[in-house]
Specification:
Structural class: alpha/beta
Mean pLDDT: 91
Number of domains: 2
Strand content: 15-25%
Bound molecules: adenosine-5'-triphosphate
Low-confidence stretches: none
GO cellular component, one term: plasma membrane
Organism: Maledivibacter halophilus
Helix content: 40-55%
Keywords: ATP-binding, Nucleotide-binding, Transport
Shape: globular
Oligomer: single chain
Pfam family, one: BCA_ABC_TP_C
Largest sheet: 6 strands, mixed
GO molecular function, one term: L-valine transmembrane transporter activity
Distance between the termini: 39 Å
Amino acid sequence: MTVLKTDKMTMKFGGITAVSKFDMEIEKNEIIGLIGPNGAGKTTCFNMITGVYTPTEGKIYFEDKNITGMKTHEITKLGIARTFQNIRLFKELSVLDNVLIANHMRLDSNLFSAIIKTPDYRNKERKILEKSIKLIKDVGLDDVINEKSSSLPYGKQRRLEIARALATDPKLLILDEPAAGMNPQESMKLMEFITEIRDRFNITILMIEHHMQVVMGVCERIYVLDYGIMIAEGTPTEIQNNPKVIEAYLGVE
Ligand SMILES: Nc1ncnc2c1ncn2[C@@H]1O[C@H](COP(=O)(O)OP(=O)(O)OP(=O)(O)O)[C@@H](O)[C@H]1O
C-alpha cells in the first residue's frame, strides 16, 4: 500500500526553484532516506509534505488522499508527524510533561469539561497519563521520566522528540536529521532505535540525514536531491555506486 506519493512536487521562492518536479512513492512500513548536499531542497520537501508550504506546482497524496495545500494540523490529524533539525522540547519540563503535552493536543474536550473536570475529562486524562508512560517506556526513557528534558544527553533528547511525535499516533513519521549532533555511539544506537519503532508502532519512516553511515545502515531506499532535482533513487548500495551522486557530493566538498 502506498503511504505517500508526490507528483511533480515543486516549490519556487521567487526566482529560486528549491524543489523541481519531485516524484516520490513510499510504501507502508518502508524506511526511506532523503539525502543531498546543503541547500538541495530536502527541508523544503518536508515543509511541503507537512503543510508548512503549499507546493507552487504538483500534488501530494497521503494514503491516496490529496493533501496538497492542507493545513499543518489537518495533516497531523490524518497521520503525519515530524521532528525538527533543531530539537524543539519544553526544556524546563520533565520528560513526562513533554510527552503529556504532546498527548494533550489530541485530547478532544471543551473548555467547560476541562475547568469542571467532568468524570469524562478525568477519564481521558488518566488514559493520556497511561499512554504517555507507555510511550516513554517504549522509547527507553523510563529511567529518566522525571528528569528535566534539557538535562538529558543529546541522544535521549532526540528519543524524547520522537516520543512526542509518536504521541499523535502517526502512520508516517518524518525525521529531520535525527543523528545531528550525536556521537558515533549514539548514532549506532539511533539506527537500531529507528528500526525498532518502525516495527513496534507499525509505521512508515521518511528521514533526512547527513550522517551517511546512519542513512546507509537503516534506510531501505534512498532519494537523492541536488539543486532541487532528484538525481537518483535506489537501495543504499545503488546510491553509493551512482556516479551522479558521487559527483554531487564531491562537487561541494
Ligand atoms: N522560505 C524560503 N525563502 C526563500 N528561499 C528558501 C526558503 N526556504 C528555503 N529556501 C531556499 O531553497 C533552497 C533549498 O533549501 P532547503 O533548506 O530545503 O535545503 P536543504 O536540502 O534542506 O539544506 P540543508 O541540508 O542545508 O538543511 C535553498 O537555496 C534555500 O536557500
